[in-house]
Amino acid sequence: MTARPGDIDSAAVDRAAVDRTAIDRAAGVLRGGGLVAFPTETVYGLGANAADGAAVTRVFQAKGRPPSHPLIVHLAGAEQLGGWVADVSAPARLLAERFWPGPLTLVLRRGGRVPLETTGGLETVAVRVPAHPVALALLAAFGGGIAAPSANRFGSVSPTTAAHVRAELGDAVDVVLDGGCCQVGVESTIVDATGEALSILRPGGVTREDLQAALGRPLAVPATSHIRVPGQHASHYAPRARVVLVEPDKVIAEAERAQESGRQVGVLLPPAFADAEVKAHAVVALPVSMPAYARELYAFLRELDQRGCDLIIASPPAEQGMGAAIANRLRRAAGPRPAV
């Protein structure tokens, strides 16, 4: 049987089997206006009651996220879309049937249940159904929509373990549900489905190729969009170390030049050069498989930070399949940082 995007390796979550007591407690925290960090197949989310504007405001405060940046509403199933969205086009319904539960977010017209705090003031809303047993159990127990961005400080590396969440957000989160390591490792693909002509606003866990195969037609990937969605900042998904991107065959030379100049250089070494000796502070040999690279990308960036690197040299992969999402995250990580 062919695996679907976002399918969960059951062995990977055996040790994080759904704890009903913890789930019920977390659902109660959400009903009371609190914040719950929970695992999805992509990254860990920082969740609040999507229908409670005051609770959603706490998410923005905990992350240091600008309130104009919309959040994704997570639902237990497509049958719950009523009230959260105003309408669903035929192409959007087709994609939901094919890829939900899974790492696909659809942007639709806002329904009456969604406060403007959740949408960043927009008349559109981003919705998805996650493919993780803990997330789905939480959604079922809560009985409503959960608004959740990634559970980290705004602009920094997204968390793929519960330990990442605790280290970064600490007491700002009321409950952290541990569901093991995320199996996709990068955020969901976001598709503008507000009209009949769909387009990709952010590459992610469902590839452009898979979406086009399901629709039977090409999908545009516009450079800009009038619809604001998560992950559009020039600098995003960024480690503490500065990230510099070069061509694959320039990675080693650029890393050694920077190391000789006194920098503490971390290297994301392309598979083609896996056997090369590199004079650098820390080297991570990348997997050949793009899904495996995506699964570990954020962990690699965190590791190089933890090892004391102040500069990371990397090369974006070819933008095919999951390579498009990885390249997007690396470009954002290398983007211009805001002045401090």
TrEMBL record:
Signal peptide: none
Residue positions binding ATP: R65, T124, S150, S158, R202, Y237
Subcellular compartments: Cytoplasm
Catalyzed chemical reaction(s): L-threonine + hydrogencarbonate + ATP = L-threonylcarbamoyladenylate + diphosphate + H2O
Chain residues that bind L-threonine: T42, H74, R128, A148, S188
One of the protein's GO biological processes: regulation of translational fidelity
Enzyme class: transferase
InterPro entries in UniProt: DHBP_synth_RibB-like_a/b_dom (IPR017945), Sua5-like_dom (IPR006070), Sua5/YwlC_C (IPR038385), Sua5_C (IPR005145), T(6)A37_SUA5 (IPR010923), TC-AMP_synthase_SUA5 (IPR050156)
A GO molecular function held by the record: ATP binding
PROSITE patterns, sorted: YRDC
UniProt keyword annotations, A-Z: ATP-binding, Cytoplasm, Nucleotide-binding, Nucleotidyltransferase, Transferase, tRNA processing
EC number(s) reported in the record: 2.7.7.87
Pfam families: Sua5_C (PF03481), Sua5_yciO_yrdC (PF01300)
Function: Required for the formation of a threonylcarbamoyl group on adenosine at position 37 (t(6)A37) in tRNAs that read codons beginning with adenine.
Family designation: Belongs to the SUA5 family.
Identification of the protein by name: Threonylcarbamoyl-AMP synthase
Lineage, highest ranks first: Bacteria, Bacillati, Actinomycetota, Actinomycetes, Streptosporangiales
